[in-house]
Design a protein that fits this description.
By secondary structure, the protein is α/β, with parallel strands linked by helices. It has a domain of 218 residues: Rossmann fold (3-Layer(aba) Sandwich). 34% of the residues lie in helices and 18% in strands. The protein has a six-stranded mixed sheet with strand order 6-7-18-15-16-17, sandwiched between helices. Strands 14-10-11-13-20 form a five-stranded parallel sheet, with helices on both faces. Strand 8 and strand 9 form a beta hairpin. Helix 2 crosses helix 5, helix 5 packs across helix 7 and helix 6 packs across helix 7. The longest helix has 16 residues.
């Protein structure tokens, strides 16, 4: 379908202070508050009404802070598991799958639930925006934003560790409006975030905002909404592997809206979240009962991240401590954190296609392994209603039937580049767009 305009009525509320804000169009955090807090959307529509399936992800537009509908979106799908459920001895296992699996009706061409973020964030952008969007990523988010922005010709600057750029592929050539800069070999996601902060502080460039962007979280909430509408009720348990925890926060927020909706139950799904050993900062902090993240040794963190099976789960500065962040989500839902070693994650990644019939990403393998661990340890009863969030899959299937194009970096920076060096380069890189937008003179 063609892109079209839409206006979803909503306000923003600071979770920390309960102060209400009118969105200025791209508000990312509360004004002048003493304690860090996430903003949360408050929608006029208290009961969500799904649109026709032809709208793709935007069938959930009632609860998305968007101005328009973009081309090419696809929603997550949820189905009741039989084979994996039988192997694990579960009675009510529901799998929410984001990826490429035409047989099940899942048509995400980047094979990851990061598409839900990209289509929501880009649809929140002001009409005739005259700035270049800046996104930092460990890989999958960049692939999703690159595809959405390329298809809809939205100027985009991606910041990604150079060791991760093999995941920046598409079955279509990338539009020139999408550019990539990288941090040097041996760097990680946090280094890419630092580079993106330098870029976004340059006149004419706009920070996407990560977990602070309500559109990112409300796009990801579509996974939980998909599950609830398929099951007919809020699940008792929610399983997902986390790097930043943004998707889990989104599920919690959707759960709170659904309680207010009133048609799907009044309980909160327990968040059972997992991290991939040996890099487990949120697990360690949660088990220590600490709202603050425990101190990280940077050199040790780099070494641990290098050993991970799923390197996309490697955020060193996740939204854990702030009001409305992951600590609050786990506390409010009486949830828990688990840690999964590489061997268990690999075994679960191999078990999933054997039982369910589709390949999955390593992060999804970590989530599946955490479910197996929870069952074996007696953490959850076998008769419970469980949602397993499989955040990416079908990549092998997609790549077997499509020729791939790869996004090449325009420049590779050191892990600690100079502000002026970055600004000068990206202004040159996007010089044609800057002239086209007739932006104020960039000094």
């Amino acid at each position: 379908m063609n892109s079209s305009s839409i206006a979803t009525p909503y306000q923003l509320i600071s979770v920390g202070s309960n102060r209400i804000y009118q969105d200025d169009g791209w508000m990312l955090e509360p004004d002048s508050e003493s304690q860090p807090s996430l903003l949360r959307t408050v929608y006029r529509s208290k009961q969500i009404q799904l649109r026709d399936k032809k709208y793709g992800l935007y069938q959930y537009a009632d609860w998305m802070p968007i101005r328009k509908i973009l081309n090419g979106s696809a929603p997550p799908i949820t189905y009741r598991s039989k084979q994996l459920a039988d192997v694990l001895g579960l009675h009510h296992l529901w799998i929410t799958f984001s990826g490429y699996w035409p047989e099940k009706g899942s048509l995400m061409k980047t094979c990851t639930f990061k598409e839900t973020e990209a289509f929501s964030v880009c649809a929140r952008l002001p009409e005739n925006m005259q700035q270049i969007l800046v996104v930092a990523s460990a890989g999958n988010t960049a692939r999703a934003f690159a595809r959405v922005c390329s298809d809809n010709q939205i100027p985009l600057l991606l910041c990604v560790p150079v060791d991760n750029i093999d995941v920046l592929w598409s079955d279509q050539p990338f539009h020139p409006c999408v550019k990539l800069i990288c941090t040097d070999s041996g760097s990680d996601y946090s280094d890419a975030i630092y580079l993106s902060n330098l870029a976004a502080s340059t006149d004419g460039f706009l920070a996407e905002g990560g977990a602070k962007n309500v559109a990112r979280r409300d796009g990801m909430a579509s996974t939980f909404l998909s599950a609830v509408h398929a099951i007919g009720q809020i699940p008792e348990y929610y399983f997902q592997a986390v790097g930043s925890g943004t998707g889990a926060i989104a599920a919690w927020e959707a759960n709170l809206r659904l309680i207010e909706d009133g048609r799907f139950g009044y309980h909160k799904a327990k968040l059972i979240l997992s991290q991939n050993e040996p890099f487990t900062p949120m697990y360690d902090s949660w088990k220590a009962g600490s709202r603050d993240l425990l101190p990280l040794d940077e050199e040790k963190a780099h070494h641990q991240i290098a050993q991970m099976y799923s390197k996309v789960l490697s955020n060193r500065k996740p939204p854990y401590s702030m009001a409305g962040g992951l600590f609050d989500a786990l506390t409010d839902t009486k949830g828990d954190m688990l840690k999964v070693n590489n061997n268990a994650a690999i075994a679960a990644t191999e078990l999933f296609p054997q039982t369910e019939g589709i390949d999955i990403h390593p992060a999804a393998g970590v989530a599946a392994a955490s479910l197996i661990q929870a069952i074996n340890s007696g953490l959850i009863p076998p008769e419970a209603t469980i949602m397993l969030n499989i955040t990416g899959g079908g990549e092998k299937l997609f790549q077997a039937h499509h020729q791939l194009n790869y996004l090449e970096p325009s420049r590779i920076f050191s892990a600690s580049p100079d502000q002026e060096e970055v600004s000068d380069f990206i202004k040159f890189l996007f010089r044609d767009y800057i002239k086209q937008y007739s932006l104020k003179e960039i000094r």
